[in-house]
Amino acid sequence: xxxxxxxxxxxxxxxxxxxxxxxxxxxxxxxxxxxxxxxxxxxxxxxxxxxxxxxxxxxxxxxxxxxxxxxxxxxxxxxxxxxxxxxxxxxxxxxxxxxxxxxxxxxxxxxxxxxxxxxxxxxxxxxxxxxxxxxxxxxxxxxxxxxxxxxxxxxxxxxxxxxxxxxxxxxxxxxxxxxxxxxxxxxxxxxxxxxxxxxxxxxxxxxxxxxxxxxxxxxxxxxxxxxxxxxxxxxxxxxxxxxxxxxxxxxxxxxxxxxxxxxxxxxxxxxxxxxxxxxxxxxxxxxxxxxxxxxxxxxxxxxxxxxxxxxxxxxxxxxxxxxxxxxxxxxxxxxxxxxxxxxxxxxxxxxxxxxxxxxxxxxxxxxxxxxxxxxxxxxxxxxxxxxxxxxxxxxxxxxxxxxxxxxxxxxxxxxxxxxxxxxxxxxxxxxxxxxxxxxxxxxxxxxxxxxxxxxxxxxxxxxxxxxxxxxxxxxxxxxxx
Length: 481
Hints:
CATH superfamily of the largest domain: P-loop containing nucleotide triphosphate hydrolases
Family: Belongs to the RecA family. RadA subfamily.
Number of domains: 3
Region (Lon-protease-like): 352-481
Binding site for ATP: 95-102
Region (Disordered): 456-481
Distance between the termini: 78 Å
Structural class: alpha/beta
GO molecular function: ATP binding; ATP-dependent DNA damage sensor activity; damaged DNA binding; hydrolase activity; zinc ion binding
CATH architecture of the largest domain: 3-Layer(aba) Sandwich
CATH class of the largest domain: Alpha Beta
């Protein structure tokens, strides 16, 4: 009889070791190694005698048909998935606890079930009564969704194989599933990988679409082995702050659609409400005329989105000034601060800098550099930026403002929301188009924009009153540029 071989597998990255150690050498995490059985269910001697079967090869010139899609009934969800769920596809949805993953899937499955499709919702974390309570709270208790509370993959596959093939299957969540083929505890790397592989095999064989709900780590990454993200067809991330009502559904990977689309939802007492105009929602509570705020005209996928950037620059009492940013890349903020100090003469080494993207949206494109710089300088010199202006443009390390893509779409969205002017790169003036009706302020370098903002304000805390006779000389004042 073969002897069982034990190994220690990292629950964060899946690396295997012969002995236990405190730190994983592959990903650098501490206390993530767990003991698992490394032997498979089939002996090596039997697996090695299996003969392969021949299969047909096809050419690239064959006819290709568009994959049939199943609409979810939610426009924002269909936008992110590329138009609906493809038959036989497997999607992985991740998000923080309590962000609304189960609520979103309950609403989507109820709409699809009401349209006449067979929908199965399998929960490994909640009982059937708990799922019914959520559906009753959302007003969806009359939807013909088939429910079950089960964690055995073999039992799930056997049950779903009987009768008509379901059009959509929801597994909530993959970390609670287990299979008899491996001898590890549910939630371990081996069990998650084996369970996902069995469900993906069932989806490809029957043509049913499967949605896997995945847990996330404290860093926001989907927990479990990274290989699961490579196995599935699409990876969706449900983002948002628990204290805010906005939720963002973002496609991280999608084999059947774009990977830069977002869906915007608003959390209400009756569930998630789709937001058809995110720009109006993000700007609904902006502070008009407040120094340190600038409106950024961005692009998320094919949709232009206007969002407010808020900056606060204040003298520091610490030896090392603080740099805090929410919703933007901290490395981008450090680069913009370095360019402001090196090429524009803006001294920020004695100031704390805080930058926030209002509404809980996360910005990934470098076109927000110009809006962030304008907000920072506005807060430093205590100058109000024009309330009817939008900003977009990429800043190079030399201080030159570089053009960005889809300028006409940004201007059109700004004009639709009532903005009158736009600050944009000089080289983008030709492609901006004259149909937007905006007054364009093209800047070639960041120095020009800084000079315009500084001419309208004064340093925070300064007054126009005459200096006292024994006032401290300017060169000894802390925070002076």
